[in-house]
Each structure stands twice: as C-alpha cells, then as structure tokens.
Amino acid sequence: MATDAAGLVKILEKVAEKISENREFLTELDSAIGDADHGINMSKGFSAVVEKLHSQKIDDCGAILKTVGMTLVSTVGGASGPLYGTAFMKAGQAVAGKSSLDFQDFVTILEQALEGIKYRGKAQRGEKTIVDSLEPAVDILKDEKDSGDKGLVMEKALNAAKEGVEYTRSIIAKKGRASYLGERSIGHQDPGATSCYLMLQAAIEKIKEMSVNGL
Amino acid sequence: MATDAAGLVKILEKVAEKISENREFLTELDSAIGDADHGINMSKGFSAVVEKLHSQKIDDCGAILKTVGMTLVSTVGGASGPLYGTAFMKAGQAVAGKSSLDFQDFVTILEQALEGIKYRGKAQRGEKTIVDSLEPAVDILKDEKDSGDKGLVMEKALNAAKEGVEYTRSIIAKKGRASYLGERSIGHQDPGATSCYLMLQAAIEKIKEMSVNGL
Amino acid sequence: MKKLINNPEHVVEEMLEGMVAAFPGYVRKLEGFNVIVRADAPVKGKVGLVSGGGSGHEPSHAGFVGRGMLDAGVAGAVFTSPTPDQIFEAVKAVDGGAGVLLIIKNYTGDVMNFEMAGEMAEMEGIKVAKVVVNDDVAVENSTYTTGRRGIAGTVFVHKIAGAKAQAGGTLDEVKAVAEKVIANVRSMGMALTPCVVPAAGKPTFTLGEDEMEIGMGIHGEPGTMRTKIMKADEIVEHLMSKILTDIPFKPGDEVAVMINGLGATPIMEQFIMYNKVSKILKEHDIKVHRTYIGEFMTSLEMAGASITLLKLDEELKKLLDAPADTPAFRQF
Amino acid sequence: MKKLINNPEHVVEEMLEGMVAAFPGYVRKLEGFNVIVRADAPVKGKVGLVSGGGSGHEPSHAGFVGRGMLDAGVAGAVFTSPTPDQIFEAVKAVDGGAGVLLIIKNYTGDVMNFEMAGEMAEMEGIKVAKVVVNDDVAVENSTYTTGRRGIAGTVFVHKIAGAKAQAGGTLDEVKAVAEKVIANVRSMGMALTPCVVPAAGKPTFTLGEDEMEIGMGIHGEPGTMRTKIMKADEIVEHLMSKILTDIPFKPGDEVAVMINGLGATPIMEQFIMYNKVSKILKEHDIKVHRTYIGEFMTSLEMAGASITLLKLDEELKKLLDAPADTPAFRQF
Ligand SMILES: Nc1ncnc2c1ncn2[C@@H]1O[C@H](COP(=O)(O)OP(=O)(O)O)[C@@H](O)[C@H]1O
Ligand SMILES: Nc1ncnc2c1ncn2[C@@H]1O[C@H](COP(=O)(O)OP(=O)(O)O)[C@@H](O)[C@H]1O
Ligand SMILES: [Mg+2]
Ligand SMILES: [Mg+2]
Ligand SMILES: [Mg+2]
Ligand SMILES: [Mg+2]
Q1: Nearest-CB residue to A77 (from C81, C219, C220)
Q2: How far is C320 from chain A (nearest CA, A)?
Q3: β-bridge mates for residue C100, sequence order
Q4: pLDDT number for residue D205
Q5: pLDDT tens sequence across B138-173
Q6: What's the sign of the alpha-carbon dihedral D135, D138, D144, D149?
Q7: Fewest CB within 10 angstroms: A72, A108, B184, D217, which?
Q8: Which residue segments constitute the domains of chain A, with CATH numbers given?
Q9: pTM, entire model
Q10: CB-based burial of residue C125 (10 Å sphere; 0-12 exposed, 13-18 middle, 19+ buried)?
Q11: Which pLDDT tens digit goes with each residue over A39-59?
C-alpha cells in the first residue's frame, strides 16, 4: 500500500543518480542561457544528499525530506539551491512524523514542493523556470489523485512535465539569469525545468520499479 | 679633397635610409636575444635626425654631428640611444668648428665614436656589442690612414666590420639585454653590431658615390 | 586552461586561506566556513555589513572587509552564490548588537540565498536589513523581470554604507544611504576575451580574434552587442552614452567614477579609458569628485573593463571621502 | 592583438594623461615630457626620488608618485627606457635643494640613460646620487656581465627610500638605505602567457597551450626553464627555493613578501600562490612582517607572477611601515 523510509531513501538515491547522469547535459543547457553550472551545482548537492542520508538512519519520512532540503540549501548555492531546498523542506513539513507514505502523500509532497518554489522564487508559469515543468505535473496529480490507476496518473503527470519543458523553449525568460537575455532566451530549453522533469522521472521510475502498489 | 656640411648631411641621410630599410631586420635580430625593438628604436631616432637636420641649416660639421648625437639620445631610448648618441656627440666634439671634413677627419670621427661607445657602455671586444663591429673597422682605418688608396682602406674597414658582425654569432653576450641569456645567446647575430655595420656601409657607399676624392 | 592553481575544487578555500595569511591584521576566516570577517568582529554597537556572492570577482568581496567598509565577505563557489548557512554564520559573527545589513548583487541566486539567511538570522533574533544592487545598465529594466544585474557599482555601496556604519549610523540609516547609492549608481562593461571557470575548464563563451562583446555580465552572461574590436575611445563613448542617459546625469552634477578592470586588462589600458571618460564628462559639464581605477569587481581573467558613475550629493561625498582601510581598498 | 587602446603610438601619452586626470590631487605631468611628478613638487628641503623605465609595467613607476614614495616617475616608450632629457626634466622638477636620488632598474639602457641624465643634472649644479636595483635571481650574477635584472623588488626600494626621504633623510642617508634594500631583496617570476607590445602587435615570445616559462623577465626576456604547466604549489616551491637560498634567508629572519601579478593573472591566483609562500616561510621559521599582493611591476597583459622577499631589520621595518599615499600604493 505504501513506501517506508527505506523506500523513500531508495527513491531519492535514484533521483540523485539521474541528476549525476545528467550533470553535463544540464550544464550544457545552462551554458546556452545561464552560467553553465546548473548540472555541476545540482549533482554536487545530490551527492551531499546521498552521503547525508547514508550517514544517518531516519525513520521519519518528513525528516528525511527536510534533511534533503537543508542539504541542498547548504551545498548547491546559486538559484537552484534555495529553490529546490525550500521545495524539499516544505514537502518534509507536510509529511512530518510519517513513517510511510502513500500516493496521497506523494501528491502532497509535490504540491508543497511547488508552493515552496513559488514562495521562494516568486515565479509564475510562463516565465521559463522550474515552475513550468512542475506545475503542470502537480495540476494533473491534484485533479486525478482519486483515479484508480495511479500508475497512469503518474505517467500523465510526467508527460505534462515533459511538455512543460518543451514549452520553455518557446518563451522568454522572465526570472533567473536567463532573463538578462530577453528575446535571445527563446529557442533554448530551461535547465531548471529540465532538472525538475528528470527528478520526477527518476522518482516515478523507482516507485514503479519497487512496485509499491499503494503508490 | 673633402666634403662640406651639405655633403655630411647627405651621408647622414643615407645612413638614416639604411636604418629605416632594415627596421624589421634589426628588430627581428633583437627579438631572438633581446626585446625586439632595436630596429624600431633606431629608425625612430634617425627619422628624428633627418627632420632635425632639415629644419635647420648648420655649416659646422662638428655641430651637425653633435645635433645628431643629441637627437639620438633624446629619441631612441633603450641601450642604443645613449650609446650611438654619445658616439656622435664625441665625434662632433672632435671636429668642432670644421666646415669641411677630409679622410683624416673621417678616421677621427669613427675613432671618437668608438671611444664614446666604450665610455658609455664599458664593453670590450668579444662581449657581443656594437664594439665588435666598430672596433675592427676603426683599427684598420687607424693603421692604414696614410695609405694612398682611401677607397680600398674603407673597403677593408667595412669588411672588418662585417667579419665582426659574423663573429658575434659565435660568442656569449656579456653586455646588454642579451647577456641574460648566457650560453643561449650563442648562434645569434648581435643587433647593435649589425646596425653599426649597416651605418658604416651606408656612409661609405655615399662617400664613394659622391666621389669625394679627398675622402 | 592556464591557471596558477592546484585543484579546481579547492580554489576558493586556498584563496581565502592565502588572504588570511596575508592580512591577519585585517581579517580572519570563520573556521569551517568560506567567510572572511574583520579581525576585530563583531564591532560592538556598530551596524554590521555583510556582502558576498560567487567567487571569481576578487577583490570582491572579502578584499573590502575592514575598517570603514564591510564586516564580512561570504565567498560562494566560483560564479555561484553562497549558501544561506554560510551567510548566516557571517551575520552571526559580525552582529555587534546594532543589526546587520546584507548588501546583495541582483542575481536570483544571491537574492534568494541572502534572503534565506536573513530569515534564519531573524529567527535567532538578529535584526537584519537588506539592499539589492542593480547598477548594470546593459540589462533592460522592468519590474516584471529579475531586473538589472549588480556589478562594480556594488563597491560604492560597500564604501559609503561602510562609512555610515563606521560613523555610528543606525541600521535604518545605513540601509537608507545604501539605497541612495543604489539609486544613483550606474555601470556598464565590455569584454575582449571570456574567462574560464576552473571547475568547468573551458571558456564561458567564445569570441573571434577580432571581436568584442559589449554589455556582458561579470559571469560571462551574454551582452547587448557583439562587434569588431573598436578603438578605446569609441568603446568608452558607447558605454558612457548608455550610462549618462540612464539616470540621467545632468550638467553640474558631481560624480565619482570607477574604471574596473575585469581581470586581464592592463592598468595602462584602464588609464587610457579613463582619459576618454574624463573628456566626455568635461564636455557634459559633469564634475568628477573622485576617481577609482583598478580591479574591484573582476571576472577571473576576463579581458575587459566596466565604467561606473555615481552621482553624488553632499552626504554621499562626505561618506565617500571618509577613510577606509581594507586589504584591497585604502583611502586616507 | 586585443587591446583597449586607440593608437599603438599614443598609448604612453594617453595613459599618462588619464592618470593625471584621475589623480590631480596626487600628481601632475610635466608639459611636453612623459614625466609624472608629485602635485606639490618640488618639496622644499626633501631629497627627491626619481624612478622610471620603459612603460608597460604599470602601476610602475608613476603610480608610486606621492607622499612617502617617489617624487617623479619617468615613462619611456613601452619596454624601452626613457631618454636622458626626460629624466633630466624630472630631476629638475623635483629637486627641492637636498639633491635627487635616481632609482634605476638594472638594464643597460636604463642605467646609461639615467647616468647621462645624472651627468646633465650635475652640470646644472644639482646633487644627484643613483642606485641600481638587481633583484631577479633568475639571472646568474657576475661582476663581468650586466648582472641581474631589476624587477618587482624595486617597489620596496621606492617605498623604503621614499619613507626615509619623507622623514628628512639626507641624500647620502636615503641612498644608503636604498642600497640596504637592494642588498636584501630578491625576486623571481614566471609566465603562463607572453604579452604583446602595442607597437609590435605580436607576442614577445610564444608558449604552448600547456607550457609555462620560469624565470623570464618583465620584458619577455627568456627565462631559465620552459616546462609543462605545474601546480601552483610546485611553481611556488621552485621560485622560493631559488629565492631563499640566494641571500640566503635564515631561520629567525623577518621578511616582507610581495606577490606581484604580471598583468593577466587574477587576484584569486595571487592569493593561492601566497597561501603556499606563507606555508614555506613557516616551515623555514621565517617571520612575515608585511605582505603585499597585487599588481606592482607588470608586463602588460602577461599572465604570471613574481615573488619578492625582502629581509628586514629594525630600520627597514620602521621605514616599510611608514605611511605612503600614492595612486597605486596606500598604507596607513
Ligand atoms: N525565480 C525562479 N523561480 C523558479 N525557478 C527559477 C527562478 N530563477 C531561476 N530559476 C531556475 O533556476 C535555473 C538555474 O539554476 P542554476 O543554474 O543552478 O542557478 P544560477 O542561475 O544561480 O546559476 C533556471 O534554469 C531556472 O529554471
Ligand atoms: N654596454 C654596451 N656596449 C655596447 N653596445 C651595447 C651595450 N649594451 C648593449 N649594446 C648594444 O645594444 C644593442 C641593443 O640595442 P636596443 O635593442 O636598441 O636596446 P635595448 O637592449 O635597451 O632594447 C645590442 O644588440 C648591443 O649591440
Ligand atoms: Mg546557472
Ligand atoms: Mg632591444
Ligand atoms: Mg550559477
Ligand atoms: Mg628595449
């Protein structure tokens, strides 16, 4: 029916792996419209996350997510550090005290993550940021959270995130470093929206792989 | 029997021309064992000399040479400025007041020029400097100054200077910027010895061309 | 990559260690953090000034820590803003009871990290205020976007807010004068060559052998225009026309000027640029009160320079003229 | 050639004009000469200090003109020593009746041109003394040759002789202390890239993408060794081993240290170098009295740096610590 703390750690490890695999790719994307460090920053952060999670055994899923958030905040730097950091910390708050998570928690976590990012970064959809991939996914999850086929819902959410990434190619950046480019930011895929999609993808893959039914 | 002030100016113009023609060559030589400016420095100086000589008409050959020396001193800079400057000033002193110059004066001029260079630069023969081309020429001129065929004497002196230039290839620089190279200065022809040879060559060519018999 | 370094991963730590070794009378490092503070921090009763950002802009920011300027400089990874925990440590270390002003360059990352640090400090009961510097006129301004970048003009904020704090100003007063500087300072830069972030190992952008970029940022952010290399006077004219028309500066104004070398541009060229700046200001009947020429807000070994103009009133003049004694900025 | 200039022929004039425009309170230019003198020159009763050399070493030498350092800086063409008439004008302009000391870097051209200027001054009845700085240990020393080059250590001569003159020392005393500095100062440098003399338009030498040159001169004179780029710590070890064994420096000695960027080397890298220098000195039980890090004696836009050590006694320490206020060197 649900995943326990150990399962959550496995999901997070998978996310870290995905980020590390895409270190060069994300940096490449950032070099076109930013300062060529997004992959470097993120994989530095997630290496620290994995190390941290391995160094201490936590049973509280909320505490695990909070630890991830705090580790990201204190290791990533740049824009993505406080954004993803706040996202995980807010998500952790929402499931504080829980020793296992079900699908509804999964939805809550992403909802709160989105809130955290919007609170910290003050971005709206359409401004070429993380929000552009995360919000469409969260919208689907919220709308269809009571549907029977959770697997399908997750697929649909992931697809929405992917479309969101694609959409960032067509718009002008209004937040973050890419915004200095004005019109010249058009045509390039946003690094943050991409890393967010990749993280979602990794999480959903792992959830399915673990065949955690309740999720 | 002799050249007057106008002839002297013509000789000096020819010297200036020769230096200017060899601007790149001398600079090239200096770039191998020095700081790649000998041709630039010298041609800057001799352009100023020509301009100066044209701006005022002087009848005193000594004064003309002194003017050349002072102009070189105040425009060339580097090592060659004070060296050639002192040389011309000393030469000028030795023929001060003369309105025409004969062959003996020519010898005196070069003798004094050499003295000036040695006084200023404290170099001996064999140290890879101007002295290595000028001194052999002066030695011949002094030895054979009473010979009947002045033309031949000048040829021999010029040849001695040329051999001096060749000789600088085989020795270590002990004075000037090239001395920092130590053994690595071997194999390169000295720029200053070369410019001195070229000046002698130009002067002698012009003297012959003007067929000034007394010289 | 031709660099005098040992390991790209350790450049920031080794640099900070070297700085503390070189200037023990001025600064010390907070153990375990990439934070440089005044040797005598916290200064009791004085408002503390904390600035910082990504490394690679040396002497910014740690080089300006000292009497009459900053109390702490926080150093992030190269071109990456420092994390809130680092900034928070700096705030704690320099709070002398009168509160702490955060001086932030306007980059999303910097703003958010400093903001989080501010929140952490307030939770601990430390009074914190913040100002965001956005002097780069190369970027179109708009309230709906991130706005302009903060570049070399930030150093004037350090200097003047620093003087105000040193003179005993309250947190509100120091913040107010910092904001006055921000309202009156404008900069713009250009580059002849890119730079190489040590960890990346390759140039942040590429430029042809005869090309230059106008209006680029101090992290290699693309500029407003890429052209054939122009004469120094033409470049200065272009930059000055953007800067002068921005506030705008008017005849009779008094200004401080900064020519800021970006890293590889020789001092000779900085003076050649200033020569033209000075002529243009004379033509516009703008009076120069003080001039700063050198490296203040660099971009590693980028070749290029920025020009900064700060419009002065009597208050700003007095504070600008006040003495300052830091490793990289000294004034009697 | 990527340079912020207008015309290679005018770089020196435009630079000096820019300098005077920037620092009118400190310096003025002698009309018609490439000579920068203290704004208040001649200072009556004080020994005048004149230094100079080819341009391209900025802030040397004109940047050090001011209270407590030089009275005049004479600027030759780029990398070409100035002519005697220029130096002579400088001497006349700064002679306050107590005589003038010429501080010369040991290059044949500089020595001869300053010597001639000295002769001219003496004919006018001005008392002149001279010292020749030869701190570069990269060059083999020998009384039969030109001897060592003068490089960044020259700035310590300016500082200390300047302090002595400012304190009212006689010409003999100022000269004596300058010679004491020269006897106790040693430097050595290295380069990662060459530089381009504006008038020549091409690099003074060439280095492979992975090569560096150790012991080269500040005019691009070839060095003692060309190798693959080494780590900063290894480079520092090599330079320090040459420097330390030269005087030699002994345990218990006190020194001043200068890390001198040659033009394009970022401040970050200068601090990384100093970090190692400081460790090596600790190992050798040599105490650092003061550290200077930055650009003092550059070589246009050459990437690289030199290290200078000056062995101090009580007299030198006191004079080094004295305040100085010049455009490029300020110390409280
Ligand atoms: N205000 C914001 N809200 C949401 N996401 C943002 C915001 N600003 C920037 N981002 C995201 O951050 C990404 C860049 O992150 P990163 O490269 O790590 O930071 P930096 O720009 O400081 O180098 C951008 O691609 C964008 O998606
Ligand atoms: N002490 C000296 N005596 C005579 N000639 C010298 C001496 N020192 C240097 N030279 C000559 O000067 C030449 C270099 O002149 P130049 O390149 O104009 O000056 P710099 O070395 O200052 O750049 C050398 O090739 C050498 O012939
Ligand atoms: Mg980035
Ligand atoms: Mg030369
Ligand atoms: Mg970044
Ligand atoms: Mg020269």
Answers
A1: C81
A2: 30
A3: C48, C128
A4: 83
A5: 999 999 999 989 999 999 999 999 999 999 999 999
A6: negative
A7: B184
A8: 2-212 (1.25.40.340)
A9: 0.94
A10: exposed
A11: 999 999 999 999 999 999 999
